[in-house]
Design brief:
3-stranded parallel β-sheet; 3 strands; 9% strand; flat
Length: 92
Amino acid sequence: MLYLHGGGWVIGSLAGYDGVARNLCRDNGCVVVAVDYRLAPELRFPAASDDCLAALAWCMPTAPPWMATQRGSCSPATARVATWPRHGRTRT
């Protein structure tokens, strides 16, 4: 499971959500890859989503298709931003 902590790409940290990731691992009996992505405003869009895409690409070769899921404390819309195709995106 790929876990993206909440915070709207601006706040939050991997350390702050470590307990959540560990509980997901324990409760679901699966590997949880928690991403420590770069935050704004220090690093502009698409830094955070690029980090999440890199983590997803790293996970995909070993993840069976039926295990695809979306979990996290962020909204579904925010999670989708993390998986946008690079084509056509612009920096804001």
